[in-house]
Amino acid sequence: MMSAMAVPFLIPSVMTGYCFRDTSMSLVHHPWMREGLYAAIVLMQLFPVAVIILWLSPPSTVTDSAIHLGRLARTSWSFRFRLALQSRLRIHLTAFCLLFLLSFQEADLASLMQANGWTEWIFTKHSRGLELGETLRLAAFPMVVHLPFLIPIVLWINSPRPDDRHNIRRLSKAHTGRTLLICSWIAASLLVVVLMPTWHLVRGFRFGLNMVGSQPTLIREVSDGILIAATSGCVCLGLVLTLRSTFQTGVPRLLLFLLFLPASMGSLPWGLTVAEIFQTAGFRFAYDTPVPLILSEVLYLLPRAVILFHCFDLSENSPARKMIQLLSESGNAAQKRIGRELHWKFHGRKVFAVALLLSYWSYFEVMLPSILAMPGLAPINYVLYNSLHYGRIAALGVKLAVAIVIPFVLVTVLISLRRLFTRFF
Amino acid sequence: MAKPLQYVLIGFLVLALAVGWMSVARRTDEALVVYCAHDLIFASQILDDFESETGIPVVVVGDTEATKSLGLVQRLLREKENPVCDVFWNNQVLGTVELAEAGVLQPYRGSGFERIPEQFKDPDGLWAGFGGRLRVWIVNTDSFTTEESKVLEAFQSDDLSQMTIAMPLYGTTLTHFAILWNQWGGSETKAWYDDLLERGCQISPGNATVKNLVAEGVCQFGWTDTDDYFVGLDEGAPVAMLPIRVDEGKTICIPNSVAMINGTSKKEETQQLIDYLLSERIELALAKSGSRQIPLGPTDEDALPEDVRELIPLAAQSVDVTDSASARIECLKWLSELYTSPSQ
Questions:
Q1: Any idea where the domains of chain A sit in the sequence?
Q2: With DSSP H G I counted as helix, E B as strand and the rest as coil, what are the percentages for chain A, rounded to 5?
Q3: Structural domains of chain B, ranges and CATH numbers in brackets
Q4: N or C: which end of chain B has fewer CB within 10 A?
Q5: B281: closest CA among B262, B260, B303?
Q6: What are the alphabetically sorted keywords of the record (chain B) (predicted)?
Q7: Is the ipTM of this complex over 0.85?
Q8: What is the CATH number of domain A2-424?
């Protein structure tokens, strides 16, 4: 259920842009309708994130009754405010802030659909070329907007892990009417953000299949995309796992804030800032290497990785984890093997899922490779995005389909290989 | 999973990634790095042919819509002290002139340079133009007339909601505006553009979108380049074109330009590529391609497609685009401020 819900969020913007760009352009005489269409698509894409956060978060220890009693007891405003902040309002606020940040940062679809926004404003500001100081000054604007919305998210991540007896699904308590509304919205999201773009893709693929032979660089572009994605995903994962093992009781809030800052600039100002930094005397030696691109991707993905791990932590059961650890360390070979298998199911699979998601986001990132990719490196998503400039040419559908299918096949092979390994080792 | 196996898998992953990055790095070892602002759909074939004929590997860095057409000029300026690129193939001229003035380019006068008319090359040999495009009116023939006087009459009317032009901050529309700025002066250009917007002219993200909007009948007419017009025509869209004329009835022909980057370590190969691009053969190939570029140097006219042959007299009537180089900088400054002011 949760996987189905997450699908709209995982559909790459180049695919939705491929589907809706022409519709958006045809609304040139009705700019408000165009903005409305863009806003609706973004909301449909991001809505599952809020639902998943609300679903995974355990109920607050401060109940509605406690807040009511606080009011009856005429406690001070400040105390009641603090109480309210620890109630379920906190989870709602976190979900809202996350939605705000994700929609505020959205740049790829906005550019493809020509929706107005601060990212376009920053593009335009850079049209004359700017010095590093000026770029940083411009990047400060989104950061200042982001900061107040980062606070609830950092506090949510930094909050102590709840007692397992509280770890129950929230949606079971939801009203039928509300559940119906959520399900309808998700169904609409699946239709607009998943099925319609997929249909366009399949149609494009059918018409352009004979053009695959005339795309000799296609496989190289897909390989470049996978190489960047795998490197960024693995480095980011390694960094988060190191952070988690270094700070076992939780990453300090200040450090979390600092780690979240680069991504809070948005990909365009962040990419331009990195490009400028690597043109200064001290870093110039690494400019023409993969370092700027991978570094920028890793720091851009880091907040997502931290949030993903926190979501998985919330859904994890500590006694079960302890039992699995004991089984894995058992002297009995059969028990040990079962323990290892369970460890994979309960822990390894989550780490693998985080790595996949991070790589997936990196694979479909447009702005950072377009600014920082070294010569000779042309990842597929950047090429696809560029091709959209020429309209819906038939080969584009094929390229997009291949770009999606190859990594999918690769992941399937990896999972099969793991099964094969565990059977024999 | 057992710990040793885990380490083996991690080791294997690291090795695979290292091999991947090494092969990427090797791509540029002996290769010429070409920054190409011309549509890669058309440029790739020419560069591939050069590679197979000379054995000199070429790595192309294209421009993206994400960074707009100014991306490569800005990137070259940023990389001035630490050049990565060997050859710059620009799809227009004024950005190249800016690079020449900034000291990013170095002179080369080879066989290709010699065959290009004076009007389309730098007197110091810093760059040379080839394969031009005309700025044209694109008209939807299903919903509007192709009579020039009627189109110009509609352009003077109070309602321009059926007209579309590309965002003038980028590409050939910026060059077009720079020419107007050069001819009319800043204040008149600003007043004219304000009036254009007030009358409801639609601003599109690029010339390809202008073509799409007119071809689909969303707008009746607009400004674009001949290459985009011919793409529409080849797709069977109901479109026709008329040349845009500025003061004294002159047309606007915007050539591609090619230049050698100051500090290139592959001077000989770079010169070979520049001569190749400026040759008659490549001008003919560009003329025969979907973009129908107009040859600037002497070419065998019989070998040209009919629709390109018709454009040659129009290209000969063009203003000297390079006269507007300094106007472009002022114009760009104004447009950038206009489109980032709080009221926009």
A1: 2-424
A2: 80, 0, 20
A3: 25-132+254-316 (3.40.190.10), 133-252+325-340 (3.40.190.10)
A4: C
A5: B303
A6: Signal
A7: no
A8: 1.10.3720.10
